[in-house]
Structure formats: structure tokens, C-alpha cells
Design a protein that fits this description.
The complex is a heterodimer of chains A (82) and B (611). In chain A, a hairpin with a 7-residue loop joins β3 and β4. Chain A is built from 2 helices and 6 strands. Chain A is globular and about 30 Å long. Chain A has helices at residues 25-33, 67-70; strands at 3-4, 13-19, 41-46, 54-58, 61-65, 73-77. Chain A has one domain: Ferrous iron transport protein A (FeoA) (SH3 type barrels, Roll). Chain B has 611 residues and is α/β, with parallel strands linked by helices. Chain B has a 7-stranded mixed beta sheet, with helices on both faces. In chain B, strands 8-9 form a two-stranded antiparallel ribbon. Chain B starts with a strand and ends with a helix. The chains are: A alpha+beta (82), B alpha/beta (611). Chain A binds chain B through residues 24, 26-27, 29-35, 37, 40, 45-46, 48-53, 55, 57-66, 68-69, and chain B through 58-59, 61, 63, 93-94, 96-97, 100-101, 188, 192, 195, 199-200, 203, 205-206, 209-210, 213-214, 217, 219, 307, 311-312, 314-315, 318, 324, 422, 426-432.
Chain lengths: 82, 611
């Protein structure tokens, strides 16, 4: 099932599938620059309380995204053994 | 003079490299209205070469006005015949973040016939983790020389100087033009492939970062750490800066006491004492606050904590159209709006920075405190309620502080919902840089530059207005009586304006003079009522106001007026300089005056229904 990046919990890993059509083009550009490419592996390092932005790791860089952005990034949860 | 451009993505350690190469002897120029700084300095080992440090950017595809200015300036610089070379800094520990931008820089530079050398920075970090980077292979893949360097230790910089000394040639593929038309999309794919090939694997590089984030972003421990750090920041501008501000006043007072008696002419003496020294003091007194706040914010930024603080505050502030990065400027605004406006530079989204500018003047700054103290002492009984649990004066002080903050958030919420300037907005995608120990020298240099910017840019305006208000209050009776001065006449003239608040001309004059600084209201009122040193000893003035039969509604209306109105020339001057728009300062002054006036009239009329 396709889900979005925002729905990840702390410790979850996923593969980016793409972006939904409602995401602003410039936001998509910025995400790509940061390494959120389709096919890239992303892990959720921290999911904070009260809906605060979550912390994600892409390669060796750590980013924080809020739901306005992360909910537009379509992902596939990667099982731990992959 | 030959010029070298230094460019790189944020958090790549570019500024440290720049400082190393120029030996900190550089000047900073900033574009009006945006936070883009361009530093220039001569290379220490090659005095005939000038190094131009561009602001960190993630790509040459600008997505906001700030980025557009920076990118345009870079592209224009490539046209400059004096530019001989481009140095592009990449973070060797996180190549995936820098390579797309690096390929764009190489392509654009090649289009202008400028050779690029890539500086793989932070090699010391890689080495400390027993990791390496194959710079020769990377250079081959990028078709540009790659030099391993460390901005922190200075290792590898001799090779950079050597490369700049030597004759620069474009790699064959660039020189023949065959790679010049590669589209961005292809560069992105190539960068991704190169990052996969050359980037470090495993979590060894971010292990410490993850561990510290476990504390600083923890629901409980992170909350405590946040409040403690913000407490220290608040203390730094409220308490630690106070002795330095007193020292500035003391030095100016001492010099004035020495100079003024030497002047024979009374008017010249009064001018020197009150306008000249008063005018200089009016802006110099803020320098310690600006210096200290810039230092503390620099510590937070360079250590990596600033990004974490922004993350923690983001969600609640987003409700009001702001970002997590707005929190520190707004908190600083509770001490003083001037350093707070400088602090708003850290906000990368121009739209959110503008909204933060709008909120800052409504934060209950320390200059409002004497006004609040006077009016609350005069109108609110010093008694307690609820069995001694609640002091009414304390409650009133809390209420008026809260009211200011509420108004600030209300304004930003309304403006963000009615204005749809999305071009100047940026998404909340925040890089959390590794925790690092800040370097002291560049930090102090930045504090010095910021203080100098304030004195040279805003100081002139503050000084001119101070002198102007002095002239209005001094002439035509040569300081004999404020009531019959031009300022007094102006007070009489605008009396009808303040009549709906139940105030007479004397309060009008005090409000006009408080345009210099809000606390001047107390001293001016004291002068009009013939009470000496009212700003230091308020009790006689409080008694005078209480005996004057002024209505409670007028007192509350004045409190409301001062909570909202932006009658502070220093704030307006720095707002105009930082936003690059004097019209913004004028609009905010007029808008907040109307808002303050309407709210004050409403309060006075409403309270009149019950008395």
C-alpha cells in the first residue's frame, strides 16, 4: 500500500516512490536537492510529540520536515531485512 | 585585481574556509531587504587576489527572492573579466547534499569560461572516523580538480593557494562545449549516482548527532533543555547586557560632563548636552544588546542547536503563519525590538521573515516597562484578591504583557491568511546539521560587523530624529517651558486627537516625545507636571496623576495604546534598513498607530459605560 512520508513512525524505513500532484513544484525541487529522490531510502529517526516536524535521515544528512511537505511524499515502507 | 569566487551549500563549512584564506580581514556587504551577505577579502598568501564569499545556497535554481538575488549576483560575477577562478566547497562527509549544486556550478562556470576547483571540506571529520574519499576518482567524474581540505584545521589550504597561483585550464569536455547544455534533470541524476559511488556508508558519521538529538529533541529532556537555553538567551539580553548599557551611558555622561561646561553659549551648551550626546546615546546604548544577542544566536547557529529550537517551536507558531525560526527573534523582542529584528535574519523564508518583523514590535519590550509601571501604579490598586493569592497590579502587568504578545500573533495570523505571497515562502524542510563546537573568532567578527551595521546605518536616522525632537521642545523659548515650546504647541494642536481617550495636550506631548523611546513618556510627563527626575522616582508622578481626576478608562486606554503603537524611532530605522523598504517601516508605523488608537478609544468608550 502506498503511504506518505509523514505517516512513518520513529525507526521506520522507507523507499521514496514519488510526490503527489498537489505538491508545489518549488517544494518538489527543494526536496530533490536535499536528496529525497524517488528510489532513495529514507529512515524516520524521530517522531516528536504534538505533531511537531519529524526527523528523517537521507544518506548521512538529517532533515526535519513538517506534515505540509512530508505528507506529499509517497513512500513504500521497507521491511527491516531489505 | 584578480577575483576568486567562493561558493557552496549551507553548512558546508564555507565561511570557516573563507576566514582561513583571508585571515578574517574582510568586509561584509548585504543586499538591502534580504539576508544575503557577500563578504570580500584579500587572500592572505596571495594579496593580489580577492576572494568573494557567496551566501550558501542549495542550488542555482532559486525558489525565493533571497535566493534569486544571490544566484543572479553569482551569475553576473561570472561575466566579470576580473574573475579568474571559482572555488566550490562540498561537505566531504555528506556528498549527496552538495554534488548536484557542484555540477551546476561547474556547468555555469564553464559557460563563462571560468575554471572550478572543488574543495572537499571536513576531511578531518572523515579521517577521525577512519574514512576516506577518493578525490582523484571524484575529480575525474566531476571533470574538475578536487582538493581535500579542512576549514577547521587549515589542512590542505596550501594546495588551494597553489592551485590559484597556477595557470587554470578548463577540462576538455567543458572547453569544447560538449557538456555545457546538460539539463538540470540529468545533473541531478549524475549527482545522485556520484553520491552513491563516493559517499560514505553506514551511520558512523551521524551516530553522535543521533545520540544528542535523542536528548535535545526528547519530549521531556528536550523541553527542559529548550527552556533552559531560551532562559539563558533572554538573560543575556535582559540582564547581562544591562551593565554594558549602563557603562555606555556612564562613559557618554562623563564625556558630556567634561565637554559641556567648556561651551560658553547657553543654547550651544544645551544642544551639545541634550541633542548631541542624547542623540549619540540614543543609538549607542543598544550596541551591547546587539553584540550579545548576535553572539548568543551565533553560538546557537554554529553549534547546530538553532535548527533544533526551530523544529521544537514550529508547530505552534505555524498556526499564526510563522515558522519555528520566528521564536528566537520574538523572544528577543521582549527585551528589545532592535536586536530582535537583526535576529530575524536567521529566517530563510522571506514571507515568514516579514511576518516576524510584524510581530516583533508588538512584543512587550523593556522600554514599555516604565510606562506600564507608572500607569498601573496610578490606576490599579495595590491590593490583593482571592485571599491574598492575586495581586491586582501584578495581574494587570501580566495581562498587558500577554495582550501585546496576543496582538502580535493576531496580526501575523490575519496577514498570513489574507496575503498569498507564496513565491516568497519556503517549505519547512530544515537541515539538522551535526553538533559542532563554534569557532570564537569568526563569531566575534560577526558580532562586530552587526554592531557596526547598526551604528552606521540606523544610527544616523536615530540621531537626526533625536535632534529634531530636541529642537521642537527647545525653541522658541530656549528650553524655559516645554508647554510653550513648538512641541507643546504641537501637543495643543493634536489635543482633539487624544480627547476621545480622555487625555489632554500634556499626554499628547508625552506621547509625541516618546517617539524617541517609549520610556521618555515618563520623564516628559514629569517635566510637564514640574516633577524632577520622574523617570527615576515615580511616586510623586503617580500621586500627581491620581490627584488629577484622570479616568480609569484613560489609564487603561493609554496602556493599550502603548502595548500596540510602534512609536520607537530606533525600531523603525532598523526595520527600514533590514527590510530594505522604508515604506514597510512607514506602513507599520501608521498601521500600528491606527490599531493602537482604535483599540484605546474602544477601551475608553467601553469602560465609560460602567463609570
Amino acid at each position: 500500500m502506498d503511504i506518505n512520508l509523514w505517516s512513518l513512525k520513529s525507526g521506520d524505513r522507507c523507499e521514496i516512490l514519488g510526490y503527489d500532484n498537489t505538491l508545489d513544484e518549488k517544494y518538489r525541487v527543494r526536496l530533490m536537492e536535499f536528496g529525497f529522490h524517488p528510489g532513495e531510502s529514507v529512515s524516520c529517526l524521530q517522531s516528536l510529540a504534538f505533531g511537531a516536524p519529524k526527523v528523517y535521515r537521507v544518506s548521512n544528512t538529517v532533515f526535519s520536515l513538517d506534515d505540509e511537505v512530508a505528507s506529499h511524499v509517497l513512500v513504500r515502507i521497507t521491511p527491516p531485512h531489505e | 585585481m584578480s577575483k576568486v569566487l567562493l561558493i557552496g551549500s549551507p553548512n558546508s563549512g564555507k565561511s570557516l574556509l573563507f576566514n582561513r584564506l583571508t585571515g578574517l580581514h574582510h568586509k561584509v556587504a548585504n543586499f538591502p531587504g534580504i539576508t544575503v551577505d557577500v563578504s570580500t577579502g584579500r587572500l592572505q598568501d596571495l594579496p593580489g587576489m580577492e576572494l568573494i564569499d557567496f551566501p550558501g545556497t542549495y542550488s542555482l535554481q532559486a525558489i525565493s527572492a533571497d535566493e534569486r538575488v544571490a544566484v543572479d549576483y553569482f551569475e553576473r560575477s561570472l561575466d566579470d573579466d576580473e574573475v579568474s577562478h571559482v572555488l566550490c566547497v562540498v561537505d566531504a562527509t555528506r556528498l549527496e547534499k552538495s554534488l548536484y549544486f557542484t555540477l551546476q556550478v561547474i556547468r555555469e562556470s564553464a559557460r563563462h569560461g571560468k575554471p572550478v576547483t572543488v574543495l572537499a571540506n571536513m576531511m578531518d571529520v572523515l579521517e577521525s572516523h577512519k574514512l576516506s574519499l577518493d578525490v582523484e576518482q571524484l575529480a575525474q567524474a566531476l571533470q574538475a580538480p578536487v582538493l581535500p581540505v579542512s576549514g577547521r584545521s587549515g589542512k590542505g589550504l596550501k594546495a588551494v593557494v597553489g592551485a590559484l597561483k597556477g595557470e587554470q585550464v578548463l577540462p576538455a569536455t567543458w572547453a569544447t562545449g560538449q557538456s555545457l547544455e546538460v539539463p538540470d534533470e540529468q545533473l541531478r541524476i549524475t549527482a545522485h549516482q556520484l553520491a552513491q559511488r563516493f559517499g560514505t556508508r553506514g551511520d558512523v558519521l551521524i551516530r553522535n548527532q543521533t545520540r544528542l538529538d535523542g536528548i535535545f529533541l526528547h519530549s521531556l529532556a528536550g523541553g527542559f533543555a529548550f527552556f533552559f537555553i531560551m532562559y539563558l538567551l533572554f538573560q543575556s539580553i535582559f540582564t547581562w547586557a544591562a551593565p554594558l548599557m549602563d557603562a555606555v551611558e556612564y562613559v557618554l555622561g562623563t564625556v558630556a560632563n567634561w565637554v559641556v561646561p567648556m561651551i560658553g553659549n547657553q543654547t550651544a551648551r544645551d544642544f551639545t548636552s541634550d541633542a548631541l550626546f542624547g542623540g549619540i546615546g540614543a543609538f549607542l546604548v543598544f550596541v551591547p544588546q546587539i553584540f550579545i544577542l548576535t553572539f548568543v544566536i551565533g553560538l546557537l547557529e554554529d553549534s547546530g542547536y538553532m535548527a533544533r529550537a526551530a523544529l521544537i517551536c514550529h508547530k505552534p507558531l505555524r498556526l499564526f503563519g510563522l515558522t519555528g525560526k520566528s521564536f528566537i527573534p520574538m523572544l528577543s523582542g521582549v527585551a528589545c525590538a532592535i536586536p530582535a529584528i537583526y535576529a530575524a535574519r536567521a529566517i530563510d523564508s522571506p514571507r515568514k521573515r516579514l511576518l516576524t518583523y510584524m510581530a516583533i514590535p508588538l512584543m512587550p519590550c523593556s522600554a514599555r516597562l516604565p510606562v506600564y509601571t507608572l500607569l498601573i501604579a496610578a490606576f490599579i490598586p495595590a491590593t490583593t484578591g482571592l485571599g491574598g493569592l492575586v495581586g491586582w497590579q501584578g495581574l494587570a502587568m501580566f495581562a498587558i504583557y500577554f495582550f501585546g504578545m496576543f496582538c502580535g500573533l493576531l496580526v501575523t495570523a490575519l496577514v498570513s491568511r489574507t496575503s498569498k505571497d507564496h513565491y516568497n515562502d519556503l517549505p519547512f524542510v530544515l537541515e539538522l546539521p551535526p553538533y559542532r563546537l563554534p569557532s570564537l573568532k569568526p563569531l566575534l567578527r560577526n558580532c562586530w560587523n552587526r554592531s557596526k551595521h547598526f551604528v552606521t546605518k540606523a544610527g544616523k536616522i536615530i540621531f537626526a530624529v533625536t535632534v529634531g525632537v530636541w529642537v521642537l521642545g527647545y525653541f522658541p523659548n530656549f528650553g524655559a517651558d516645554l508647554g510653550t515650546s513648538w512641541l507643546g504647541h504641537l501637543g495643543h494642536f493634536i489635543e482633539p486627537l487624544f480627547a476621545p481617550l480622555g487625555l489632554d495636550w500634556r499626554y499628547g506631548v508625552a506621547i509625541l516625545s516618546s517617539f524617541l523611546a517609549r520610556e521618555v513618556f515618563v520623564g516628559t510627563l514629569g517635566t510637564i507636571f514640574g516633577i524632577e527626575s520622574a523617570d527615576e522616582q515615580m511616586a510623586p508622578l503617580v500621586q500627581h496623576i491620581q490627584n488629577s481626576d484622570m479616568a480609569l478608562g484613560s489609564g487603561i486606554a493609554l496602556l493599550v495604546f502603548f502595548a500596540i503603537a510602534l512609536q520607537c524611532i530606533s525600531t523603525l530605522a532598523i526595520l527600514s534598513k533590514e527590510s530594505g523598504s522604508s515604506s514597510l517601516a512607514v506602513k507599520m508605523f501608521a498601521g500600528y498607530f491606527l490599531f493602537a488608537y482604535a483599540a484605546a478609544v474602544a477601551v475608553y468608550q467601553f469602560t465609560g459605560l460602567f463609570t
